[in-house]
Design a protein that fits this description.
The protein is mainly beta and 409 residues long. The chain has one domain: monomeric porin ompg (Porin, Beta Barrel), CATH 2.40.160.40. The protein contains 7 helices and 19 strands.
Length: 409
């Protein structure tokens, strides 16, 4: 590596180092493009970033478990950040930003082939802007130019869902990754994600007459999800002999949702959901410094990490809850810890027009403008925040927000 490259790339690598977990406590950075591990979902981020198993129509979760596409209820959705996220604001780098958007489409084959299958597709984009850096001479500190460091990925996802009472979904994503840490050096790679999601509507399965009282039924769902992400080879910046591995990661998680729903308009009156997720980076280092990919389940133990919720230096535990009020307001809180992270606390808020339109629909005639809105359209706003107990921490006051449009045909 030349002096010019070394002086310009060091500050970037410090930023990438803090971007997310890619290290064990006693090792240096062990993967390239760690920005792939940043959770882009403001909804999930309000719940400690737990997203692999939650039942949700949030398009952003496709980035971390493509199986969600098989379980979504809407035929089309789009989500985007109205303003870019100031990433790692605790470092004071104003031009370090994170941005994402996603498009999803789904069709139910049951309407055409009389089989309980659905297929969903999605395209998503994530951008991490590392800011403007000075290019210096290899012989001294003189500035000879500037360049903009940035990393991004484009993902194309496919999901299939099967509903026979118990709902099962599988998904796959293909991801094109580009990393520019030096003005005239672009590194790129392809990777794949695989996901599985299962939802068991327990209350619906155990009783034929679910009503607790006239028109009101209980809700009790259990979900399990897992995803293997960023599967690929290596990525090269300067020398193929020094290629870096992708941040291959395994996630497993469970979620429950309980509540009450109004049967007449198929609307949830009040719900409480809780999720826990374990993540393990599947990259190791040999004594000579070379890297290798570990087995598919890494250090994960369902009993230790999901049931007991114990985190370790190698395993990150994310958990959080959400209270939904009339499918209109959502209050969220959570945390994550382990895998190199100190305790990160999260909270969030969501607002949806779906519940509002449904309850207005109760007092109007069928086939009016309001009933059409209630049946076919939903607008949502979600926001979330990160904070820690530490006075100075790179993630303190990190904020995410998104706007989403959902259409059901």
């Amino acid at each position: 590596m030349t002096g010019k490259m070394r002086k310009s790339i060091v500050p970037i690598m410090m930023v990438v180092f803090f971007s997310c977990t890619t290290i064990a406590q006693t090792t240096a950075i062990s993967t390239a493009v760690p920005f792939l591990l940043i959770s882009s979902s403001p909804e999930a981020n309000g719940q400690g970033t737990a997203s692999v198993s939650r039942q949700t129509d949030d398009p952003f979760v496709v980035n971390y478990n493509p199986a969600h596409l098989g379980g979504m209820q809407n035929n089309f959705s789009v989500s985007f950040y109205p303003t870019k996220t100031n990433w790692l604001p605790g470092l004071g780098l104003k031009d370090l930003t994170y941005n994402s958007y996603v498009f999803c489409g789904k069709t139910n084959l049951n309407e055409y082939l009389s089989v309980p299958l659905s297929i969903g597709i999605a395209y998503s984009r994530v951008d991490l802007n590392l800011g403007t850096f000075n290019r210096t001479s290899s012989t001294g500190p003189d500035i000879i130019g500037t360049y903009n460091g940035e990393e991004h990925n484009d993902a194309f996802s496919l999901g299939v869902g099967w509903d026979i009472g118990i709902k099962l979904a599988l998904g796959i994503s293909f991801r094109r990754i580009v990393s520019n840490l030096e003005g005239d050096v672009n590194a790129s790679a392809w990777s794949r994600d695989y996901g599985l999601l299962m939802n068991v509507p327990i209350a619906d399965l155990i009783t034929k007459k679910p009503e607790l009282m006239t028109g009101i039924a209980p809700l009790f769902d259990f979900s399990f999800g897992t995803a293997l992400t960023n599967i690929g080879g290596t990525i090269t910046y300067f020398d193929k002999a020094q290629a870096d591995p992708l941040p291959r990661n395994i996630s497993i998680g469970t979620s429950i949702e309980i509540g009450l729903k109004l049967i007449k308009i198929d609307s949830k009156i009040i719900t409480f959901s809780w999720s826990r997720q374990a993540d393990n980076l599947l990259v190791g280092r040999n004594q000579d410094g070379s890297s290798y990919y570990r087995g598919i389940f890494g250090d994960l133990s369902f009993g230790k990490h999901i049931i007991q919720g114990k985190w370790t230096d190698a395993v990150k535990i994310s958990q959080g809850w959400q209270i939904g009020l009339g499918e209109f307001i959502y209050i969220r809180q959570g945390s994550y810890q382990g895998g190199g992270f100190s305790n990160i606390k999260t909270d969030g808020l969501g607002i949806s027009t779906s519940g509002l339109f449904k309850f207005i629909k109760l007092g109007v005639e069928d086939n009016t403008f309001i009933t059409q809105l209630a049946d076919h359209l939903d607008l949502r706003y979600d926001q979330s925040n990160y904070d820690t107990d530490e006075l100075i921490h790179p993630l303190n006051s990190t904020k995410f927000s998104s706007l989403s449009l959902f259409i059901k045909f």
